[in-house]
Request: fold
Amino acid sequence: MRSPLAFAAIPFGVGVGLAWGLRPSAPVLCGLIGFSALILLWGHRRPMMGNLSLMGLIVALGVLRGWVDAQPPPHPVAPLLTSAPQPISGEGIVVSDVEWTRPSQGPARRQGWFEIRQIRQGAAWIPADGRLLLRLPPTARPFAYGEHLRLHGTIRGPRPQRPGGSTSPARPFDEGDWLWLRGACGVLTVSDPEAVERLDHPASLWAQYRRSVASFREQLEERGRSLLGSLEAAYLEAFLLGEGGGIPRETWEAFKKSGTVHVLVVSGLHVGLIGFLSLLLLSLVRIPRNPRYLLLIGILISYCVLTGAKLPILRSAIMGILLCLSKLSGDELPALNSLGLAALLILAVSPRALADASFQLSFASVAGLLVFSPWFGRWLGLGREEERPDSWGGVLRRKAAQALAVSCGAWSAVSPFVAWHFHRVTPIAVFANLIIVPWSSLLIAVGFLLYLVSLVNPWAALPIAASFGWMVNGLNRLVGLLAALPGASWGW
Reply:
């Protein structure tokens, strides 16, 4: 078996799902599965029974990990987590970048994630635990990752479902599910800017690194916005920084209807191109082979942090790092092995990622490329033994068939998840991606060059910025035309 890690990730995920479905009896289930697997492993020496026993043990580990993660932390914040806001005074640590957010209703505000460490009851401070969504007024001073704060505000639990979800205006938004997926238990709101006090604590090395990356990100955003119009800058930030908040809603809808919205979300396509361009740049400056791959690992980690370390980026970065390590060691690492190891690492740290649509779509797309695309390729005649084509027409036909097989493989794998989560099927995506993905790849490369040149000399980046703007306008029109074709998208 060349890809045992890929097959290990599946039973681990099954175990996590079983833990959610049978939450009260999950420890008993874990014990039964684990004990049965050990008996089979001990009593049978045949390879097939041994493999089944090992898979049973992995399922038991998944059940145990999912059950442990689902246990509510025993802290005094729980009684305050009602639908009505309750006053609270607490201390804790900022565990994300505090960024601007523009809700559909109400003014803009600052928002980030906050780990509460203690709360005040009467005159005493008592230990507490839990992650909260921290909302600050727009006039509050900016706070950085790892800062210790003392604040006074209100805390509440998740609100009931309400219409106006991010995927469909008619579909209810479940704040409880949204917070649960992110490991949070409630929302902490501070209305008065003076009610937040920065505590004097030395920053860890990791916090200093995160702050330097956030500062570099702000510098890139400023350069892009000074060289481009608002729409073009929004595309640049979506393609390279993972921030799509500036793209208009109607543009998002057009990309969704054409089945190409994945190009606006930093994922494997973006990370792969950034890795390739970085490796090319390191080669041009004659960095030796081993230091080159070590530097590329650092670049991938930094880019993952720079773009918010969302699940598709995390999966792509892990697979890229594993590829670099295989190059350093000289051993070939099967792609399915790296995909399975990435899934195992993410689920071991955060089992709730299994229920996230971005996790499912990201891993399904890569699995479709690796498993289904060869099937479509053979169906299109790519697996036949034939002589090397002599004409340009033969080469082009073969390349077109390869691209179509890749598009069909990815689409067939992600379509069930898109239909389940977003109530939409996009048949046009099979052909739209043949045009939009190369166009977007070129835009990513031009955007990378734009940022690189603008850091050295902003004036020299003006022609690159003009080219990027023209390409964005062309992409906008093309996506609009594809989305408007009859039968392009079926929604319900």
Notes: The first helix runs from residue 4 to 21. The chain has four domains: 4-70, 78-202, 217-271+342-491, 272-341. The chain has a mean pLDDT of 83. The domain at 78-202 is CATH 2.40.50.140 (OB fold (Dihydrolipoamide Acetyltransferase, E2P)).
